[in-house]
Amino acid sequence: MTALSRFPRFFVTSPSPCPYLPGRQERKIFTELTGQHAGELNDALGRIGFRRSQSVAYRPSCAGCTACVSVRVVADQFQPNATQRKLLKRLGDLEVTACKPWATEEQFELLHRYLTSRHPGGGMAAMDENDYADMVEQSPVSSYVIEYREPSVEGVRGRLIGACITDQQADGLSMIYSFFEADSETRPGLGNFIIMDHILRARSASLPYVYLGYWVKGSERMAYKTRYRPIEVLGPNGWSVLTDEDLAVSMPVPARVRELA
């Protein structure tokens, strides 16, 4: 392993407004993933809470705030609840394919619809086809685009309704970014289905974890990540299972309850 791989150089971004918690500033520490050992470095950094974006590994490093917590589902212990079992059955006819990391026009159009529906004012809203191609193809590690399609009819491939850029790490699957038909009336719950499909894929491949990125304490937008149990959180003493008591302490109080208090 090269000296750069053994001792990567880290940098810190300038503070900017936090997209999850109003009134707070976010800052990231990051390093470049390059060379023949980029995959090993990405695996090692993933185990201590880093995420990949193209050829960069990063994690939050915010002054005075530790709300962002790395989370990973324990794949072989996951037991879907009744609602999740119904969703798996209802969407079980979807055709799922692990594709090489090559951007397509169909994927970009789906991403554009997703961002328009779910994140119209977000930082990715202005992405064009070239930006998306960089997002998918500039990967120095083992990466795939998992596609979710409606069933084929008479040999014609079904419509693309979901996709996820996914890394295969030594100890699991890392869901880099998923997008889907967010306003589908006929197939609601696609985002949840994609997560559960990854959990089942990891289990069948004997990979212990599915990395879901960051759970942001106090952000209702990120609360969905705690639905997949058991889920581990990364703290000062390493990874530990998130408990119901942890959730009770950290979950935000709904606005209506605050008004009545």
UniProtKB/TrEMBL annotation:
Any single biological process term in GO? ubiquitin-dependent protein catabolic process via the N-end rule pathway
Similarity annotation: Belongs to the R-transferase family. Bpt subfamily.
Please report a single Pfam family linked to this protein. ATE_C
Can you tell which superkingdom this protein's organism belongs to? Bacteria
The listed locations are: Cytoplasm
Give the enzyme's main class according to its UniProt record, as a single word. Answer: transferase
Residue ranges constituting the N-end rule aminoacyl transferase C-terminal domain according to the UniProt record: 106-234
Checking InterPro entries in the record gives: Acyl_CoA_acyltransferase, Asp_Glu_LeuTrfase, N-end_Aminoacyl_Trfase, N-end_Aminoacyl_Trfase_C, N-end_Aminoacyl_Trfase_N
EC code(s) of this entry: 2.3.2.29
Reaction(s) catalysed (UniProt annotation):
N-terminal L-glutamyl-[protein] + L-leucyl-tRNA(Leu) = N-terminal L-leucyl-L-glutamyl-[protein] + tRNA(Leu) + H(+); N-terminal L-aspartyl-[protein] + L-leucyl-tRNA(Leu) = N-terminal L-leucyl-L-aspartyl-[protein] + tRNA(Leu) + H(+)
- Name of the protein in its database record: Aspartate/glutamate leucyltransferase
Which molecular-function annotations from GO does this UniProt entry contain?
Answer: arginyl-tRNA--protein transferase activity; leucyl-tRNA--protein transferase activity
Lineage start: Bacteria, Pseudomonadati, Pseudomonadota, Alphaproteobacteria, Sphingomonadales
Instruction: Report the residue ranges that make up the N-end aminoacyl transferase N-terminal domain in this protein.
Output: 16-86
Q: Name one GO cellular component term.
A: cytoplasm
The UniProt entry, under HAMAP family, shows: Bpt
Query: Which keywords accompany this UniProt record?
Result: Acyltransferase, Cytoplasm, Transferase
Keyword Acyltransferase among record annotations: yes
Known function: Functions in the N-end rule pathway of protein degradation where it conjugates Leu from its aminoacyl-tRNA to the N-termini of proteins containing an N-terminal aspartate or glutamate.
